[in-house]
Amino acid sequence: MFETISYETRGKTAWITLNRPDKLNAFTSLMHKEMVSAIKEANKDSNVRAVVITGAGRAFCSGQDLSGSTDTDYGEVLRKGYNPMVQALVAMEKPVIAAVNGVAAGAGMSLALACDFRIASEKASFIEAFIHVGLVPDSGNLYFLPRLVGHAKAMELAVLGEKITAAQAKEFGLVTKTVSEEDFLLEVETFAEKLSNMPTKAIGLIKRYMNKSWESDLNEVLEYEAQAQKIAGESDDHQEGLHAFLEKRKPAFTGK
């Protein structure tokens, strides 16, 4: 089905794997298109309630594949390739986990930042590689990075372009958790399963309106919360949560 990525569902989780290990999973125009297709496939599949994005081999993603590229208008490359991918990720009202198994550089780091959670192997690393070729962080990088680590640290990472370890990324608030290389896959699977068993509609509403909150004032956010709570209050999962609470049992959410 895909040439540069693989897509599979495991239980209620969709796994999207960047699959160019010989090129450290560097992006190509085809990979952009296939990523958007895979994200949309996961979004429309009602059985999928969480998504994992990871890389094959020893890297998560090394950024853009610069070898043999004939594109010189990088603005158009972003508008046609990277931006639709990031927009599709953010618009998907299901939790997305970046399982960072190795280096996440340049646009590969941007991809990780665009996800809702980041679980990093202790062997993983992050680098804002753009500055080393005289470019500017892109693919939503300048939006997500300061929101995750603060303005000052974001400037430091973007301008100095120094590689940081998984442990440093955790310290900066860049990743959700770091795990040993040996336990990495199991930890990601466990985390994804946990999310996939939670009330998916409520998670989607949290994601939607938390994103809106950055460009909204307090009164707007209060109204967003009221709108979201009305929708969540009418969900099957809310009723299940109430019954489970009253019956002193663990809820069995269905994502509806």
Instruction: Indicate the overall shape.
Output: globular
> Which CATH class of the largest domain is shown?
Alpha Beta
Q: Return Rg in Å.
A: 19 Å
Q: Write the CATH architecture name of the largest domain.
A: Alpha-Beta Complex
On the 0 to 100 scale, the average pLDDT is 94
CATH superfamily of the largest domain: 2-enoyl-CoA Hydratase, Chain A, domain 1
The helix fraction, in percent, is 40-55%
Query: How would a crystallographer describe the biggest sheet?
Result: 6 strands, mixed
Description:
There is one protein chain. The chain has 256 residues and is an alpha/beta fold. The chain has two domains: 5-196, Alpha-Beta Complex (2-enoyl-CoA Hydratase, Chain A, domain 1); 200-246, Orthogonal Bundle (Lyase 2-enoyl-coa Hydratase, Chain  A, domain 2), CATH 1.10.12. The protein is 48% helix and 16% strand. The chain is built from ten helices and ten strands. The strands form two sheets. The protein has a six-stranded mixed beta sheet with strand order 1-2-3-5-7-10, sandwiched between helices. Strand 2 (13-18), helix 1 (29-44) and strand 3 (50-55) form a beta-alpha-beta unit. Helix 1 (29-44) runs parallel beside helix 2, helix 3 (107-114) crosses helix 4 (141-149) and helix 4 packs across helix 5. 40% of the residues are buried. The mean pLDDT is 94.
